[in-house]
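hey can u run this one w/ iron/sulfur cluster bound, need the structure tokens asap thx
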Amino acid sequence: MSPFLQVNNLKVHFPTDDGVVKAVDGLTFNLEKGKTLGIVGESGSGKSVTSLAIMGLHRGSRARLSGEVLLDDRDLLKVSDEELRSLRGRKLAMIFQDPLSAMHPYYTIGQQLTEAIQVHEDVSKKAARTKVIDMLGRVGIPNPNKRVDQYPHEFSGGMRQRAMIGMALINDPELLIADEPTTALDVTVQAQILDLMRDLQSEFGSAIIMITHDLGVVAEIADDVLVMYGGKCIEYAEVDSAFHQPDHPYTWGLLTSMPRLDRLKLDRLLPIAGNPPSLINLPPGCAFHPRCAFRDSAPCACDEVVPELLESYPKHDSRCHIPVAKRAELFANVIAPRL
Ligand code: SF4
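ok here u go:
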């Protein structure tokens, strides 16, 4: 049986006056129901563009898309606008980073969630409202009977995010895409939201794509992790393997620059040198080479030859010229002591 979601060689390119921006350039991954994939990377790595492509939200823009996004064997890049609209909400839904811009300021939370139900289900307003109040309660909004008639601006940031999660889940979507859903929230609310998503996943059996720059969030919630750099996947693994044997110098950089509360040592964090590349003018060869501290260990010119994504360990792929055994040695001797 084919996986529930298969993304095959997805490319999202934007033609501009200065050249083509290759925001996503040949991305392939699978996701089963009930599982969570964490997509990680810095700003501009292509992770959010990927989620918008799956949702069909580049339609009508200048973006050129190719490849396949198969959801239950149906290619979302090829379905009609009408079919896509009927799938959104019921089959796939998205939680955006900023709930204030994703919700309409002139309508109450209740009106917006009720409409989301009535687009897909032939139910009375009264029945839909009952379902909305129930959902608001389930996502942890106190006094849902009263809150249902309030406007987005009357909710705190955390409550608005919960309401948006409720809106995304109100039709029990089979695929939920969450784009940095906790970035704007304080840590205690972040933890509550992650717990909530986990609970709702076990209740509805949804597949979740969690887009984040935070490896801590991935460790907490994901089954698999895909690391993006310069529009490409540079490491793709089961989460345990990715954290115990990370296999790409960029992933090492993400890990050594991550603050950890469980460390008493006052070691300084080691940020990755330099800045993420411009997608319109990617460095030749391995796009990470201008920032890579390990390129001298590669047997060929990293600034000339593009590395392929190859299997290093079972269900663990990465894209680097350094031989796998040498990378394992570098990780054990140089990186692991700093973690
Ligand atoms: Fe670093 Fe070269 Fe590997 Fe790229 S291919 S990550 S530059 S060692």
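The mean pLDDT is 90. anyway lmk if its weird
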